[in-house]
Fold this sequence. Notes:
Layout: H1 9-12, H2 18-26, E1 33-34, H3 46-57, H4 70-84, E2 94-97, H5 99-111, E3 117-122, H6 127-133, E4 138-143, H7 153-162, E5 166-172, H8 184-194, E6 200-204, E7 227-232, E8 245-248, H9 251-264, H10 270-282, H11 287-307, E9 320-324, H12 333-344, E10 346-347, E11 349-350, E12 361-365, H13 370-387
Parallel strand pairs: 1-10, 3-4, 3-5, 5-6, 6-7
Antiparallel strand pairs: 2-8, 7-8, 9-12, 11-12
InterPro entries: Aminotransferase_I/II_large, AspAT/PAT-like, NHTrfase_class1_PyrdxlP-BS, PyrdxlP-dep_Trfase, PyrdxlP-dep_Trfase_major, PyrdxlP-dep_Trfase_small
Enzyme class: transferase
Organism: Nicoliella lavandulae
Amino acid sequence: MDLKQFISQSASQIEPDLISIFNQKVSGIEGLIPLTLGEPDFNTPTHIKEAAIQAIEQNESHYTNPRGLMEFRTAAANYVHDKYDVSYDPATEVLATSGVSEALLTTFLAILNAGDEVIIPTPAFPVYEGVVKIPGGKPVFVDTSDDNFKLTPDKLEQTLKAHSHVKALILNYPNNPTGATYDQSELSALADVIKQHDILLISDEIYSELTYGGAHFSIAKLLPEQTIMYNGLSKSHAMTGWRVGVVFAKPAILNEIFKMHVFASFSVNTIAQYAAIEAFNNGRDDAAPMKDIYKQRRDIVVAGLNEVGIATPNPSGAFYIFATIPDTFNGDSMQFCLDLAQQAKVGVVPGVGFGPGGERSFRLSYAASTEDLKEAVSRIQKFMKNIK
Length: 388
């Protein structure tokens, strides 16, 4: 029996996430310094872990309201209000999800019909393409590599004119993989275009606390009716494994996302919710010392890469560098990253995995120890000198 006959067309047409595939491919190399995954090397702050321990000891081990504990939703709403000046009703406009990954999938299951189009500025996090395709949606990629990795109002308007079935736009900032972000004036210009069209804005702001040089501004403040905003604690509080995300949206949209969420996971891990309550209420500045160290690491890596002709824009947020492979290397981004892993024992992700504008580039995560990053830069420099 050919078991492949039982696989759905939508599943068979979706490529596996290249980040995970490539990480698995090189992870067995002895002595490798892995800079492939967006995984903070910090520990979850102690006061948050203590809140989780207390919840366990108090036997908080049962299902919660599928929307999330009311205390959780209130804490999350207060957090984004005080941080970013956006207002949401905890009872009707906030939903706890198992990370932003679940938020993405349940959102698109809720809003897309077969054939609906979703604009994805690229280079982009590969998961976006998959979650659009699963319900039968069609990604519309917009290459931003010639515009400092930012979507411009003109390019957005041109894309909307060329595509008549656009249901939504995904905006991720600070961006994975490029580290680019938008200031208030840039977001205002994009909002002016968006408000002229009947589309939804999916604003993935999971890296909002990791911005360098200026405060994060949420576009949800400008487009409260049209925006579905995501946030969480994975990156800001080193809580990737706790799997806590939050969706903020108007009730007419959130109620439909909630339906999908119940089928996907019912409710978020109860202990993790209690930890998140502590983080939102009493850990609002927990990211600050981490951000200072990330900035120092960013500067070390950028300077080291530039020394050997690997050009990279200085990232303004998140903890990634999206660097250009020099013309002296005769091969594509996949070959470059394989050679770098095998010969220099440094793991980075091929840019081809991030969509149009990604080829001839690679993503390096500087969410690793400063010692490892310095050694990785030294190895990359030696590698580049050997190929000239």
